[in-house]
Design goal:
114 residues; mainly alpha; globular
């Protein structure tokens, strides 16, 4: 696989791509994003959410000593949080696009505050 095979390739701004065989040559600055799939690969249940090739590539770089410390820390934090892919899918399924747990009435309405 190569970076252009990634579904997020056109809009991705992460300079270090797990699908890039030369990822270790890329610079990663403080303000740079970390690949969403690399973060997802660290989470519980990633086997069911990601393609096997993508999962293997993400987990391979996560254990590589050449991985920048900033990315390593981000992946460690991601492992302890919920899936952004699952959260996004849930939001897309809710009629009207309202987020779960957010009142649909204006905040000024006393009945919306529980």
């Amino acid at each position: 696989m190569k970076p252009s095979d990634c579904p997020k390739f056109a809009a991705c701004s992460a300079p270090v791509c797990p699908l890039d065989c030369q990822w270790s040559l890329r610079a990663h600055n403080r303000e740079d994003r970390v690949c969403i799939y690399a973060c997802e690969a660290m989470k519980t249940g990633a086997d069911a959410r990601l393609e096997a090739k993508v999962l293997m590539a993400c987990r391979r770089i996560a254990t590589d000593d050449r991985l920048p410390a900033r990315i390593r820390r981000q992946l460690q934090r991601a492992a302890n949080s919920g899936s952004r892919l699952v959260a996004g899918a849930l939001l897309r399924r809710i009629p009207g696009g309202a987020a779960v747990g957010i009142a649909s009435k204006p905040a000024s309405d006393a009945s919306a505050i529980a």
